Hints:
single chain, alpha/beta, Rossmann fold, seven-stranded mixed beta sheet, two-stranded antiparallel sheet
Amino acid sequence: MLLVLSLLVLAAVSMPWGPPAHGSGESDFAAQREDMVRTQLKGLFRKAIQDRSVIQAMLKVPRHLFIPAGNRDWAYADSPVPIGYGQTISQPYIVALMTEALKLQPGMKVLEVGTGSGYQAAVLAEITPNVYTIEIIKALYQRAEATLKKFGYETVVVRQGDGYFGIEEFAPYDAIIVTCAAQHVPPPLFDQLKTGGRMVIPVGGSFETQRLLLVTKDEEGKRRSETLELVRFVPLVRSVRE
Ligand code: SAH
């Protein structure tokens, strides 16, 4: 019994670091994607993702095409993957957990802060066409905009700038997802959230464990928050990089 338990624990701990076990043809990537959904989104030791629209989206979006070619073999691993410029694409489970927490319906308007590779924006766009995303690093912004267009996510509006201020032009939003860790919930983002809206945001110091918060705006405009998970995200920075 003890042996079985420790093997299970070892399996859980070693999973993110396991070497990619597949080749790299397109059908093989599709098989890896199915594995990812089956083992990581509904796996042991975590709260299973229930929302069908999130599961469908993650089955569909070709995550490997959002990752620089040299790192593609890691695209469906249970871990974040480097995307250049010191940034990472989030672990698939965290993408699913955050998307599910938004309770998105088709037609809702959603803002993402931290476009990175564009992958999270594509997952959102599988659920609603009204996706707005902002990235502070110019090269990532340009690459993500091109990738999203190339793979059929033309409705996603991509901007470059400091997402601390949201994108006022298209506010208010039904949902806001922040994919970099902030020191506090940026007031401009809370202002741009509709009454009844939902925001998911990691809050805490750089490169330490942060709290993934679900922030909601009630009928009186008051803020409520709850912690969903402990996470590690790259920091929300404040200087725009050319
Ligand atoms: N959601 C992304 C991963 C994001 S990594 C994906 O699916 O690939 C976090 C991103 O936030 C990085 O690209 C980083 O450059 C960006 N970022 C950091 N601070 C920001 C800010 N103030 N405004 C907008 N983007 C920011």
